């Protein structure tokens, strides 16, 4: 496996983890939310992150992979600084 794939996958996983945690917090903050909704948000988010990470690691060309990483980084910055 090429080095750029390892770096891109690791960067995406870090950003994806932050996005999953944000999704869990948003699910928790909904009025009338129960614990199962938070865990459902975590499961769906983790599954999506895992699928995209595998695609970055093995399938996607470099331009698309780095585009996904950049979009994730922009999403993390936007969501964490939004207040």
TrEMBL record:
Record has Transmembrane as a keyword: yes
Keywords tagged on the record: Membrane, Transmembrane, Transmembrane helix
Q: Which residues cross the membrane?
A: 6-26, 38-58, 64-82
Q: What is this protein identified as? A: Uncharacterized protein
Task: Specify the species.
Answer: Saccharothrix longispora
């Amino acid at each position: 496996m090429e080095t750029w794939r390892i770096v891109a996958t690791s960067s995406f996983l870090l950003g994806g983890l932050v996005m999953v945690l944000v999704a869990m917090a948003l699910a928790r903050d909904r009025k009338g939310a129960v614990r199962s909704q938070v865990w459902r948000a975590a499961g769906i988010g983790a599954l999506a992150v895992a699928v995209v990470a595998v695609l970055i690691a093995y399938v996607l060309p470099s331009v698309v992979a780095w585009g996904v990483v950049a979009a994730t980084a922009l999403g993390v910055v936007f969501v964490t600084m939004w207040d």
